[in-house]
Every structure is written in C-alpha cells, then in structure tokens.
C-alpha cells in the first residue's frame, strides 16, 4: 500500500484504530498489571493518563499521519522539511519502529498462549478441571520452549499473511463482526463472574484509590500501559492516520477509540477479578492471570468449552487486529523507502521480530533466571523488553505532542481538527504543556527506581530529546 492510499470507508479508520487499540493489552495486560500493582491506585494513574494525555496525543498522532500521508518515518522526514524544523524530529518515526518491533516480538508469544487455550477449550480438555490442574497446565506450557515457539510462529506467520495481502480485504469486514462479538462474550463472562464470583471484592480492589499502594515503578507501568493500550506513541496510529479520510472527525474518533478501549479493559478487569476473589486466587500472579482464571470459570460453566473456545478465538482476533498494526508502520516504511514489495517488507519485519520473540519464549523457562539481563537490569529479557516499551512509547508520545503542538501551524491544525477555535486552543494547550509535563513528571519520578543500565540508557534518550527540542522550531507560513 503506498502512502496515498485511503481507507475505503470514512469510518474505517475508527474501526482499524479500535482494532489496534483493543487487544491483549486490555484482556491480558491490564488485569495482570493492575493485580501486581495493587489495584485502584494503578487504575487511577492509568485513567488520568488516558484522558488528559492519551486522547490529545491520539489526535496529534492521527493528525501527523493524515497531513503527511506517509509511513511514520518518511512522514516525519517530510514534515520536518515542510516545517523547517530539525531533522532530529524524524526520530519519532525511528523510535516508533523500534517500539513496534519490540512489542510485536513479545505480543506474538503471548497471543500464542491464547492459541493453546483455544485448542484446550475446543477439545474439552479442561471441562470440570480444578484450580490446581489448570495452573499446573499453564506452568507446563511455560516450561516448554518448543510448544511456545510453535504457537509464536503460527501466530506471527498468520499476522504476516494478513498484512502481506493488504489490510482492506479480511480485516475491514472481520473487525465489524469480531469486535461486537468479543464484547458480548466478555459480558457473558462478567455475568458469570457476578453470579459465581465475588464482584464486590473485585470492585473494591479496582476502584479504591490509595495512591500509596503504587510503587514508583508502578507509576511508569501505569503510564506505559495507557500508551500501550491506545497503541500510542509508536507510529501505528500515525500509519493508520495516513490512510484516514480527510472528512472524518479527529476529535470524535479519538474519544470513541479511548472510550471503547477503556470499557473493554474495565469489563475484563471486573470479570477476571470477580473470579479471582471468588476462587481465592492471587491477584498478583503476573502474566498468567487471564490464562489461569478464565479457563477455571469455563471449566465449570454450562457449555463452558464452547463459550471458552469462542472467547479465546475472539482474543486471538483482537490480538491479530493489534499485531497487524504493529507490522504496518515498519512494513510501509520499507516499501516507501526501499521500493520493496509489500510481502518482502512484511517478511523482513516479521522474521526479525520472530527471532527477537525467542527471547521472550525462553524468559519463562530456560532463561528464567541467572542471565545477562538479570545481571545487568535485574529482570528477565521479557521484563526488560516490556520496560523498554514502557519508556519508548510515552517518550514517543511526548515528542509527537511537542511536534504537533509547536511545529504545526494554527491554520493547518484548524483545518485538520475542523472544530471551533476554543477546542483548538484547548487541544493545543493539552499537547503543548499538559501532556509533556505529565509524561516528564512520571519519568522523573521513576528514574531512580529503575535499576541498572536502564538509567544511562534513559539519560541518553533524554539528551537526544533535549537536543531535538533545542533546535528552533520555525513555523512555516
Ligand atoms: N493496543 C494494543 C493492545 O492493547 C497493543 C498495541 C500497542 C498495538 C501498540 C499496536 C501498537 O493490545
């Protein structure tokens, strides 16, 4: 797909952006991070970032894509020229490509777990199983690098196939059915949780805000998660924005994406924690949370094998629609810059991310401890990659906000936003000051907490950022 392509329908961007946003981040990552970080306090920071920072930056990122109508790297290169700003801003595109690559590498491994559970559900293997059997089964999956690699390979290959074919055919119509279906099944699981679990305990865990419960690294994780779940700050939204019709409303679209995305996360969290408290399981059990609690519910539920099977298929669908948006920005860049064919570009991105994904695979078994990552950064390779994305995405978002807020001209932005001057001024204030201040605040708060070589790395990144900022941003006429 070249840079001048536009989605076939005015509303497709919304669909694609929701497809990108709603994924493992909502169903798997949000509940487990909330559980590990003490509940309500985590959600408070998460929600504040979504609304005060996420929505304005979502608008900014879409805008950069739509005005440049190119892949993020080439688009930023183009915008730095037309706006006579420093070329350093092109790093928005490069940083985004790095994030996309890192995220895809572990995203595909986790989605592979969902593949495993789809199989277990549909074959009825877990019908009537108890908590101990189910968590032992999950541990057995984690202990097997071979099995995990197999699923990882299947998932990433399938995503590659879809992006390679171009995203118009399968995805546009697929999403129209899958997203509503996912929501319906989630509500079914929630109702089951309310009847058979402990929804009161879940609600008080999720909505009791005690900021002291949140560790310093928890702040970074909450902010990172709010960028992650909106697919923000790494080029996915910019790449999709490049195909967005000029008539669709940026503001309304961004609010709709954030709203649906948050709703899915909240329903998933409420359902999962009702079951967790009902069955007396641990809230802080980490990445396995969804994969242990939900099969337990399905094991007992009438028609559980079927409901569970459908549920995990929809999880896979949500994951695929997100993973294609991770492949798209990098693939589009390779096509534009090196004149590759689309399949070639997709293959390069996916093979590299697949290989990187093996690090996540082994982080759960043979490299679970005692590796160079533990020695240098005090965590496994998977946790280190996650930490990097928690830093890269807000940093990318910060730079996007600054560029859109300071470099784009008023008339340009007004034309893109298509709203009145009051909203323009509000938005510009949010991306010029509020977003950057909030992101910097969380960074500064958490830097001393993040061990090892992360600090110098972050320091180096900040210096690059400051260098970029110090270049005078001249406005084009
Ligand atoms: N937003 C996706 C999710 O919540 C993950 C994602 C991040 C997708 C960044 C694309 C880009 O699962």
Automatic annotation (TrEMBL):
Transmembrane portions of the chain: 12-31, 43-67, 88-110, 150-171, 177-195, 226-243, 255-281, 301-334, 346-367, 387-408, 429-447, 453-470
UniProt cross-references to SUPFAM superfamilies, sorted A to Z: SNF-like
GO CC, alphabetical: membrane
UniProt entry tagged with the keyword GTP-binding: no
Compartments in which it is found: Membrane
Membrane topology of this protein: Multi-pass membrane protein
Family: Belongs to the sodium:neurotransmitter symporter (SNF) (TC 2.A.22) family.
Source organism, top-level taxon: Bacteria
Keyword field: Membrane, Symport, Transmembrane, Transmembrane helix, Transport
Keyword Transmembrane: yes
Record protein name field: Transporter
PROSITE patterns recorded: NA_NEUROTRAN_SYMP_1, NA_NEUROTRAN_SYMP_3
NCBIfam families: Na_transp
GO molecular function: symporter activity
